[in-house]
């Protein structure tokens, strides 16, 4: 920069391009980290903050863990004579500055969604679960919707508004 020239910080609004992906993977606990890393990598082009990435990864991890542990629990698999692991579907969409994440299973479903979403409620205290998964999803994302039908499965829909505004150095 030449002497006397002024350096001004200018706010630039970056609108993100629509982008979408869907993956299907086995309901195995090893795939929980695969799903969280994949979601983190998908949002990387938006230049998210460390906090945003961490929030997204945590929410995905809680949703996927629920499908593995509760959706496809042993009792459901045995009583429906399903062999092998069930499937989990994760769909991610970036539209404008909003990230949409859907995590879906075709497992046992939830009888009472309101009760399931209460902080500290768990149907598996025997597995030392703490009943905080939905509370974390709610806290770390901007919107959470749970759709479920006993015997058919569960769909978790989450939204997060991404901060796509950045400061850049620009000479006047
Ligand atoms: N995909 C799912 N299929 C069936 N039941 C589910 C599913 N996700 C959640 N649930 C039910 O909702 C309850 C609450 O879920 P939440 O994630 O809040 O707590 P948790 O999984 O029991 O404990 P934590 O997540 O703290 O380990 C679960 O105990 C379970 O009964
Ligand atoms: Mg949970």
Structural write-up:
There is one protein chain. The protein has 5 helices and 7 strands; from the N terminus they run E-E-H-H-H-E-E-H-H-E-E-E. With 172 residues, the chain is of the alpha+beta class. The N and C termini lie close together (10 Å). The model is unreliable at 165-172 (pLDDT under 50). The chain has a single domain, classed as 2-Layer Sandwich (Heat Shock Protein 90), CATH 3.30.565. Adenosine-5'-triphosphate is lined by residues 62, 66-67, 70-71, 105, 107-110, 116, 121-124, 129-134, 154. Residues 62, 65-66, 133 line the site of magnesium ion.
Short description:
The protein is α+β, with helices and mostly antiparallel strands and 172 residues long.
Identify the bound ligands. Answer: adenosine-5'-triphosphate, magnesium ion
CATH fold type: Heat Shock Protein 90
Mean pLDDT: 90
User: Could you give the distance between the termini?
Assistant: 10 Å
Number of strands: 7
Residue share in helices?
Answer: 25-40%
Report the order of strands and helices. Answer: EEHHHEEHHEEE
- The CATH superfamily title: Histidine kinase-like ATPase, C-terminal domain
What's the number of domains? 1
What's the level 1 CATH class?
Alpha Beta
- Count of alpha and pi helical runs: 5
- Gyration radius, rounded: 20 Å
Strand order of the largest sheet: 2-3-4-6-5
- Overall CATH architecture: 2-Layer Sandwich
> Uncertain regions: pLDDT < 50 for 5+ in a row?
165-172
Percent range for β-strand residues:
25-35%
Give the overall silhouette. globular
**Major sheet attributes:** 5 strands, antiparallel
Structural class: alpha+beta
């Amino acid at each position: 920069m030449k002497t006397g020239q002024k350096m001004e910080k200018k706010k630039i609004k970056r609108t993100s391009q629509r982008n979408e992906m869907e993956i299907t993977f086995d309901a195995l606990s090893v795939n929980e980290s695969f799903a969280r890393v994949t979601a983190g990598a998908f949002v990387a082009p938006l230049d998210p903050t460390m906090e945003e990435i961490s929030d997204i990864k945590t929410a995905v991890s809680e949703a996927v863990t629920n499908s593995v542990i509760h959706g496809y629990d042993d009792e459901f698999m045995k009583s429906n004579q399903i062999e092998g692991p069930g499937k989990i579907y994760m769909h991610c969409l970036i539209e404008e500055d909003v990230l949409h994440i859907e995590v879906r299973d075709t497992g046992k479903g939830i009888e009472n969604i309101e009760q399931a979403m209460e902080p500290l409620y768990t149907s598996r205290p025997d597995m030392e679960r703490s009943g905080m998964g939905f509370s974390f999803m709610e806290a770390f994302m901007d919107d959470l919707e749970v759709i479920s039908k006993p015997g058919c499965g569960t769909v978790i829909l989450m939204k997060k508004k991404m901060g796509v505004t950045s400061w850049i150095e620009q000479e006047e």
